Amino acid sequence: xxxxxxxxxxxxxxxxxxxxxxxxxxxxxxxxxxxxxxxxxxxxxxxxxxxxxxxxxxxxxxxxxxxxxxxxxxxxxxxxxxxxxxxxxxxxxxxxxxxxxxxxxxxxxxxxxxxxxxxxxxxxxxxxxxxxxxxxxxxxxxxxxxxx
Length: 148
Hints:
By secondary structure, the chain is an alpha/beta fold. The protein has 4 helices and 6 strands.
């Protein structure tokens, strides 16, 4: 089954590359860029798992249980206010990406200061999102978990 998936994935990448060339040849660079992004995701073998739900329904708790560690802050009150992406990394690394383009590496203890309404009310720190590299087996094969 894995061989069949790899064959289909290779064919799909080839088809997307053709569509990208056609779009670029027709001077539609926006569509060509979209095809390039899709192709890159397929090549990188990324799968985005977005966890959505109403406030205070246990999204962060659920994600913590999947990755096997309490890295995301949780509370009895609505907490997460900034999109947080978890991806595989050999070592834990938490990076804040700001709306104006800057980046800052922070510690796990400082994470609530950027992703919670209490630590960053109305996103006054202008955080675009947070990326967490984490050595979880669940994330190792290209799974990206996105906490909303």
